[in-house]
Structure formats: structure tokens, C-alpha cells
Batch of 3 targets.
Target 1
Amino acid sequence: GVPPAPGVTPSTALTIAGSDSGGGAGIQADLKTFLACGVHGMTALTAVTVQDSLGVADFLALPPSLVAAQIRTVAADLGVGAAKTGMLASAAIVDAVIEACAQTSIGAGRSTPLVVDPVAASMHGDSLLAEDALAAVRDRLLPIATLATPNLDEVRLLTGVDVTSRDGLRKAAEAVHALGPSWVLIKAGHLAADPECVDLLFDGADFVELPGPRTGTPHTHGGGDTLAASIASALSRGCPVPEAVRFGKRYIMRAVAGAYPLGAGTGPVSAFW
Ligand code: PLP
């Protein structure tokens, strides 16, 4: 990302997500990514997690009305070039976000593109989304997504499609696309046996493969958030979806290549450039 010239208003991006006290994922990852991409980042906080490199010990979800008010307030004054959702915690928050997005023209076919990262659990398996909230994401949020970015665990939870090899990615993309997002990016990072990491983009008509190396690092905390935030950054600058996704893939490859150990567990992807 190129930093804006002094005194010039940059593009703006909004993350609707949870806080990670460890600083590696959630809104902390999103803000670092927005900064690195030269975009002014804004936050609608959904939940506060108590988290370190070993996992999520506890979290508190904020009142849905407060989440919606954050979205409406920044949209009215600052303007939102692109938005992304991460941890949404509860069904009531999902529905509040959907309503606030409708009021602020955020979502597919509206003026502001929306990236939905359907976060269900941390990489350590800690739930970040209540069970009834998964249905709300699937049935009501995904239909207003410009782009959905599920990993293979989330594909299985949302559609029942279980992908175990690269061959299954197209079926996964079709199944998620049928839930309503305009575009789907299936993240292949969890196919650990594959020597490459070939993500798949689908708009209901054409498949685009996004190849990349597999580094083998265990330190990928915040990787999903960072990818979605870098894509949202490019969208906020007016990039079409395929170019924004290619930008995001390049960004996350660098972030994973620079990932570092921190704490006794899983370190974060890098935001140092
Ligand atoms: N904590 C928060 C607040 C998040 O939003 C996320 C992912 O979206 C995570 C933790 C999980 O990150 P990871 O699975 O990379 O550990």
C-alpha cells in the first residue's frame, strides 16, 4: 500500500469484529493490515476476547445495539469505502449488523462492498460464534456479502461439504455460492498435505485459482483476518473483486512468510513491512 500524501484523505475501511488481547488476530490484525495497505481503518467492536498464543480463555459480546451504533456513526461522518466482518459472537449481533449495513448502504449491490469472513472458531478450536449465530450468518448475512472468505472448516459448518483434497474445492465454492454471496474465496490453507496452497475464487460462473507456496509455519494466528482485511483495503480503493483478491493473496503470502513465534503457542502472521 502507498501511504496517502500529507493532508489528503485516504480510502477508509471498516472492520466489524472482535478484539484479540494478544494483538495477533481480530480488530488488531485488521487495523495493522489497513495501515500497511495505506487505508484509514475504523472499527465496530463486537466482542472482547481474553486471548493469548494458546487460545481464547473467555469473551464478552457487546450489546447488539452498540455494535450497530458504531457502524451507523462512522458511516454517517467518516464514510466507509469497504467493510469486513470477522467474529460476530451472537445471532443478535449478526442481525444488528445486517440491519445497520442496510441503513448505511453496505453490502452486495449497494455502494459499499462487504467482505464476510464467516469466523466460527479460533485455530485452537475455541468457539467465537454461538450455534444459532451460524444459521444467521448462513441464512441472512451471506446473502448480502460481496465476497465470502470461508476456510474449509467453515465450509463444512455452513454447507456440510467436507473437502479433503484440492479436487473438492470447486464443489465447496459452488455450495457456498449457493448461500448467496456474489463471490466466494475458498481458502485452502487447511489442506495440509498439499505442498501448495491454491485458494479458489468463484462468482457463480468462473473459477479462478490463486496458487501460492505452503510455508509450513505453525505461526498463522490472525491469517484469515489479515487476508480479509487486505482484500477490503483494495476494495476500499475501488479495486474490482478479482484484483482485490489477488492483492490480498499477495499480501497474506508475505504476512505468512514473515510470521514469527510469540508466546508458548501459536505466533501471529507478520504486519511488519
Ligand atoms: N480472535 C478473534 C477476535 C478473531 O476475530 C479471530 C479470527 O477471526 C481469532 C481470534 C482466531 O484467529 P486464529 O484462528 O487465526 O487463531
Note: The helical segments are 26-36, 64-77, 91-103, 131-141, 152-159, 169-177, 223-236, 241-257.
Target 2
Amino acid sequence: LTQERYPVQRLPFAVVSDEDLAAFERILPGRVITSSEELEAVNVDWLRTVRGCSRVLLKPQTTEEVSQILRYCHDRKLAVTPQGGNTSMVGGSVPVFDEIILSTSLLNQVVSFHGVSGVLVCQAGCILEDLSQYVEDRDFVMPLDLGAKGSCHIGGNVATNAGGLRVLRYGSLHGTVLGLEVVLADGSILDCLSSLRKDNTGYDLKQLFIGSEGTLGVITAVSILCPPKPKAVNVAFLGCPGFTEVLRTFSSCKGKLGEVLSAFEFMDAGCMRLVQQHLHLSCPVRESPFYVLVETSGSNMEHDEAKLAAFLEDALDSGLVTDGTVATDQRKMKTLWALRERITEALSRDGYVYKYDISLPVEQLYDLVVDLRARLGPSAKTVVGYGHLGDGNLHLNVTSEAFSPGLLGALEPYVYEWTAGQRGSVSAEHGLGFRKRDVLGYSKPPSAIQLMRGLKALLDPKGILNPYKMLPSQA
Ligand code: FAD
Ligand code: MLT
Ligand code: ZN
């Protein structure tokens, strides 16, 4: 699957021997997995487009064990792919060849939580949804949320600098992560697990690892700032007659809902058709060309409801919105959120998915979708746009019955050139991983890429950490 589709050559790393397996077994008794059944799942990515052939999966439970493993691999020049929940959208979390898979699944303990500051310290393999439950039981929320919450690990979220559904309200992980513990390629432990809001002592090293996609170190623990749980949450699901109205609805929301606006997501009619057809979800409003999900989070239900009602009345009267429904109870809110969150799953059932995750000036956010529909014509099964409109982040997805080199040729480099022409980003939130590493140059100048290579060489001189990922292949 991988080598056929993407030209790539194995680098001269050592091959795992029986002595290596015995050494791992001494470090992790009973947690060195070599059974082909278990290896099958961890060798293939979520989208099923990249497949490695690793012979061994390691499951450390402590930072010290991660350190011992990496020290050993570094000495032997064995390549390692760190893996969290394996929900990467860019083939970042699976080996390309026979790299050792280092899973964080057993690094899954909460270390501490402070009920005044809201600072949570936990191991990197905690599942995001479990952490959400943990802090919600204590009247806080996680500052991030995403459709993959049931499987993704907080370490994987930090390693990809995952965005998701709450960036509009709480900002990115570059702001909410207060500290990290990282094991470097040679096994040394970097303890930057601070819980302080303010700390200007030297370079802020943790920032280097946020979004480094497993190429600079293995994150073993995270300190993260959790906001108090909002007392009042409302969700409105609205139908809009055109993209201009979607934009005007966004402006209106910012003006009228201001401090309580916590999410502004959009999806087009094609997305609605996909979740109806493949997941049997039903559309809660009259059929429309576009749909918008607005969430408010505040501290006073009456106040928020009144604001939302006034906004909706205006939006309906002025024709920005043609139909809408509002939810305040948990069950209905979940149902409305599912329409947006489960588009990814519906797409994967539609066929082979060509996935683009682009940052653009919000005014131009949908132009490329319209352009591509005309460009691709019937050669594509579906061309859809959805995403985090409030963050200027478009998810442009195209499907076909099966992988088609012709369709890929019509999409790339066209999509990347178009994006670069708008000074957009070719990866807003999913990272580059294996599949997008060669398009980094569309969004970063050669001098920046050179400095990235220098940092990689400094922190991982033998290149053992997640090779073939993030940085472009060298000609
Ligand atoms: P993995 O997929 O296992 O790994 C991702 C990368 O991080 C890999 O390069 C891996 O080597 C590295 N890595 C993992 N753990 C560590 C660690 N402890 N130390 C160092 N490196 C590590 N992304 C968004 O940004 N926003 C979304 O809204 C969003 N929604 C999604 C919805 C669905 C249904 C799916 C399947 C994916 C979605 N994603 C989204 C993509 C994905 O980036 C996130 O799901 C998540 O951040 C990945 O976490 P993970 O634990 O699965 O990491
Ligand atoms: C989302 O916002 O749904 C995710 O980033 C996943 C995707 O792009 O499909
Ligand atoms: Zn997204």
C-alpha cells in the first residue's frame, strides 16, 4: 500500500534482532508484543492509506521505561515510531517500514489535579474523553475537544498540536499546555513539567515539542490548564442559503453573542448527505445549501438564552438563516454535535478519501470547494467542505470509489498551489506526518525548513525518531 503509492526508500537503520527483543523484554516484561494480530492494527493508519511492517510493539508504563528503550534504540540505531491513539489524518502514527512502534497506551495515569488553578497533570497516554470525564466530575472541562476524543491520547494531541472544536474559545495547545515531560532520542529525560502560568526563564522549550509529531522526542507527561465547566451551554443548528450568509452569520454571532460564543462550525449540503446516507443521522432543519453549528458557553442560562434568541430572531428576519433549532439538554446537544463531528467517519465509508486541511482567510474559505467541483466534474464521487470556520480552517475532502492516480493528479499540486496563492497553510491542524511532508514548502520558506532540519539534527542526530515524517524527503 505505502511503497506502491508513495516513492520512499528505507534508511539504513538496524533491523530488530532476537537479541533486541530479549533486551526489550528485560525492560518491559510481558509488554513486548510480536503477535501478528496485534501488530496488524497498529501498522495501519485510521484512513487506511499508509501501512508499515513493524515486527514489534512496545508498551511502556513509566517515563523511566521509555527512557531505557530509547537509550537502547539510540545505541543500536533502531528507528522508533511513537503512537498514541493512531487517529492521525496524515499517516504520522504508523511505521513506514519496520520501525518499532512505541505505544503510550499504558502511560495512562492522572498524576494530579488542582481544583483552584484547574491544572491537570497526567501521563501522555490518557485518552482525551477519559480526561474530559475526569475534569468534568470536578467542574472543569478540557480546553480541547475533537471527534476522535474516544481514542486519541493527550500526548498525541500535543504532538500534533491538535486544534478541534474549542480553539475559538480556549485557543491552541500552545497556550493551554503549561508543561511537558519529554524523553529525547538518546533516552535523556527533559523535565519541563511546570504548572505555572507565567515562566520566562529562558527559551520556552516545551513549545518545540507541541506539534513536533514524534520527530523530536517522546512526550511522556503533560501539564494542561483546564477552564471551569460553563454553567450554561446552548447549541443552535442553523440552515443558511449561501456561503455569504454563513459569513454574515459568523459576524453577527461575534457581535451579538460575543463573550459567550464558544464554537462556530460549518458544513455544506454534501456533508449532510454523507452523514444521512452512511450513518443514518437525520437533518434537524429544513434542507439547505449550508449548515452552521453555533455553541454558546456562559455562566447564566437566562442571559445566554436571551442573547441567543435575540441573535436568532435577527438572523431569521434578515434571511441569513432560513431554519434553525436550539438545544439546551445534553442529549439533543450531543445529537446536533454528532452531525458535525461524524463527517470524517461518513467520508471514510464513502470511498477513498483525499483529505485537505487548509487555513485560509475566512472570506475565501469556500472558494476552493466550488472551484474543485467544476475542475473535477464526474471524476470525483463527492467534493465537500466543512470545518472550523471560526478559526479560518477548511476541511476540503474529495472521495472516489477507489484510489485513482488521475484524480490525485488533478488535485495535487493544484490544491497546494491555490492555498499558497492565498498565503494559506497547507496543514491547519492535522500536521504533515508521512503523507504531507513534501508540501511543507508551500507554507514555509527554505530558511525555516533549514532551521527545522537543524533542530532535528540537534535533538535526534541519528534520525531514529519517526523517520520519513514531517520534514520533506531530501532529493
Ligand atoms: P496518533 O495518531 O497516534 O499520533 C499522531 C502523531 O503524534 C504521530 O506523528 C505520532 O508519532 C505522534 N505522537 C503520538 N503520541 C506521541 C507522544 N506521546 N510523543 C511524541 N509523539 C507522539 N485533529 C485536529 O487537529 N482537530 C480535529 O478536530 C480532529 N478531529 C479528528 C476526528 C477524527 C474522527 C479523527 C480520526 C481524527 C481527528 N483529528 C483531528 C486528527 C488527529 O490529529 C487527532 O485525532 C489527535 O490529535 C491525534 O492523537 P493520537 O493520540 O491519535 O495520535
Ligand atoms: C474535523 O474537524 O472533523 C477533523 O479535523 C477531522 C477531519 O478533518 O475530517
Ligand atoms: Zn478539524
Note: The chain has a mean pLDDT of 97.
Target 3
Amino acid sequence: MDYKQTIADNISSALDHKINRKDIEAKIEVPKNSKMGDLAFPTFILAKELHQAPQIIAQNLVKQINTEGFDKVVATGPYINFFLNKSKFSNDVLDLILKQQQNYGNNQRGNQRNVTIDMSSPNIAKPISMGHLRSTVIGNSIANILSKNGYHPIKDNHLGDWGTQFGKLITAYLKWGNEKDVEADPINKLVEYYVHFHKVDKEHPELDDEAREWFKKLENGNQEAINLWKWFRDVSLKSFNKTYDKLGVKFDTYNGESFYNDKMDEVIQMLKDKHLLKKSRGAEIVDLQKYNLNPALILKSDGASLYITRDLATAIYRDRTYHPAMNLYVVGSEQILYFKQLKAVLKEMGIPSADNLHHVPFGLILSNGQKLSTRSGRIILLNKVLDDSVKLAKEQIQEKNPDLPNKDNVANEVGVGAIIFGDLKNNRMDSINFVLKDQLRFEGETGPYVQYAHARAESILRKAHVSSQSIVSGSKSVSDPAAWDVLKLLNDFPRIVKMACDEFEPSDIAKYSLKLSKAFNKYYAHTKVLVKDDELVARLSLVKSISIVLKEALRLLGVKAPDQM
Ligand code: ARG
């Protein structure tokens, strides 16, 4: 229920609609001190228009306002304070949640318009790292949040499957590689060849020429080059998909960089037609001085394409294919300047939807405070982290709840959920120091803590032996003041869903779920739910509503909510 809206309507009609309802709504506050009511409206914003002192306005308005649904409405100095009728509030909120179930909080702001989400996008022949984890889980959650706001998300895995590094990889494989080794342990072997190449080429620069030659052959469709590249790509994807399966993340398209190989000539032509390309030391660049940015390098002196060349083709392709309301790139903050360049070039090209391009950056994952990188050898392998987490979760469950049915399944949901939640609870832009044990605790700000709150709600409902039908149709007026925080949080969920969407910020949902879990645990510690009195069914409807909203919040994050754990 949006009580701000009700209040704004009331005030606006008391003023004969002289003041816009939306302007009033925007000024309604939640007082810091609950003695000042549940909501408050500062009247001084009307003083100028009404030519009256704020105190007078408050006193006059209070007499005219429709007070239905409120316990009292009082003027205090330049404020009008609204005290909600708690039992009506409880009824309204719980009734809506139980009617709408998991659809509670849905809105249709997106009008089913497409939003493309460029996410995960690891590089072929390299391990999918913790850094790519962030893009994967943030992108997946943003997609869920967009759907809940009525958009139609399209998740695209823009694989790094093209570029001069494939020339190096082919060269290295042909020199030192072996088919059997690659089949047995693809990513590790390919990384080994690549690293070896970089060691040797310092003393043998001719290797670089060879690699360039191979990439040229690849771009020109040489069969041997293509076959090797395809094979590298297949074995890498197989390994990536294992990780995606564990995370429960699916993509709509895997249009990696190679997909745009035959679409770049047109881009170059468009740039030429607009006289945007300039020669600089043999290479072709677009000058971006006007944007205060470094020039964008579009073609190397040997004519080879670059990352940005492929991204230009990508953005234009998405535009034509999906007409997206937004084209999002969930990519680390190291690439902020790069995406500014990309957007600027598209603008210069006169691509109308350049304005719909949003880079959604995020911070680093650190290990012991240090940056991870393949080169330094400081890498945390995502697959291993997920396996370790599930193993640890299993040990915890074994200890806490040895008779639990379906233990393996639950351990999976808890172990994987802990990793996803441990990431998403942070503001997107913050760097995360990764400590597995901390993410798996059942106490504190963790995924398992929220999952456990949900499982506790479900366990109460099981023990109650009251049919869900009687809960849905029964009374929902919880008068216990201890329930008030929970009720207000439940009522707030639809607003949080909108905010998370506007800010592309899954942490809004994660933080909300922590707050709701805490409030529920506090309520539960204070109140015996399963006592046979007049309010039993109402309390159960509260518990059921909590379970519904927690499960839905976790779903938006891409985390499962087991009924028992
Ligand atoms: N493969 C790149 C990397 O690992 C990320 C690609 C992001 N998407 C894009 N359209 N540029 O850094």
C-alpha cells in the first residue's frame, strides 16, 4: 500500500488541487522519531504559494484532511504527522501479499520493452575468474529485477573469442601443444601455452610476427586457423558452462566478439562516410578531443580490428535487432573510460540509441587486499570456490541438522547462494575482500542467514497445521506492536524493487532481505507465534508473507530458498 500516495491525494484535494499531487508526495517523509508518527508532511513548502505561515497551514489542513485509515492526524509546528491505523495497515499489506504471492512488488513500468544486458563475457582459453563472477551474478540479478519491473531482458554473453591473442595461442599450440593434453584439461593447458608464448617472445620477437600472421589468417577465414580457433572455443565453453550450471545462470545469446567479424566492414564504411576516421602512425583512429577523451583506435596499422571495433558492431547490431530501451554493459570499473569512448564514437556516428548505452560498472574482488590477475598467478578459480563452498555448507548442515532430507540439494543451494549473496550484498562499486568462511556463516550479513530466516518461517507454518487456504482467507490484523517493523518492511518491498531497477543495484534487494530477516528474528524472539488465540491466523499470515517476500527477494538475486535447512 502506498500511504504516501493516499496522503498526497488527501492533501491535494483539501487544497482544491491547487498544488500538484506528485509534488506533495515527493515531500512526505518518514520521521526519525516514531513518536512523531509514521509519516509526516512539512507544510513550509506550501507557504509561498498559499501566502500563509507553515504552522497555520498545518493547523488548517488537519481540519480538512480525510483521516480514514489513520489513528490520528495532528499538526505539530510546521508539520502534519500521520499515525497509521496499525490493524488496518496490517490487513492491507498482508492481504495484498497473500493475494499476489510471488507477484507482490511487480510493476509494469518497462512496458515489456527490451533491455540488452552484456554480462559475464569471459575470455576463451582463460579461466572464468572471480572478476567474471561479479559480472555474471550482478547481470543475472539485474535481469530478474528488470523483469519484475515489466521489462524484457536479453542476457548476452559477449565472449572474448576474437582478437590478436588467438594468433598467439595458435602459434603457441602449433609449437608446443598436444591435442590429448588439451582435451584432458583444456583451460589449464591453453593458459600454459599462452604464458609460455609470452616468456619466449621476449627473446624471439619473430614469434610476434608469426602470431600476427595467424590472426590475419583467422580474420580472412583460413581453414586451419578457423578449425583450431573453433576447437579452443568449444572446449572453453564446455568448461564455462559447468560454472554457469552451478550458479544457475542462463543466457539468451552467446554472441561473442567473433559473431561480429563479418559485421565490421560496414562499421568501417559508416565511419568513413561520416569522415570520422583519421590516420595516425599507420593506424585508423577516431578523434575524441571534443569529449575530453583519448582517441579511439579502430584499426591497427596491419588492418586488424580491435576490441572497440567489435563493440561498435555489437552496439549497432543490438540496436537494429532488439530496439532496446536500454543497452547495459555489466563490466568492471577498469573499463569506465573505455565505455565512455565507445559511447562517444557511437554518438559521433549519429547512432540514435547511443544515449541508451549504460555502462554498469563494479569494483574489484580482492584476495588479502590484493588485486587478482592471471599474470600474477593470484587467481581464485570460480569453479573451485563454488565446490569448496558447497562442501563447507554440507559440513555445517551435517552438524546442525543431520536428519535433514535432501542434504546434498540443500548444501548446493546454501553453498552457491552464499557466494552469490556475498557478492550482491555489497554496493556494486565497492571492492570486495573475498573470505569464503565469512560468506558461509549462518549469522551476520550472509546469504545463509536470509535463507535460514525463510526456512524458519516455513517451519513455523508446517508446525501450525493450518491450511494455506485458511491463512489466505482468515484475519490479517496483527495488533502486536512487535510486528510493526516487519509490517512496514513488507510494505516497503515494491518501492525497493523500483529503486533497485533505477539504480541497477541488486544490493538494494540484498540489504532489504537482511533487514527483513533481522526484523523477523527479533519479532520471533519476542512473540510466540503458535499460541491458540484470536490472532493466531493473523500471525500466520504475517509469517507466510515474510516467507513469500524473502523467497522472492532471494529469487531476484539468483539465490534459492530451501524450505528446510
Ligand atoms: N571479455 C571482456 C573482459 O574479460 C569483457 C567484455 C565486456 N563486454 C563488452 N561488450 N565489451 O574484459
Note: The longest strand covers residues 70-76.
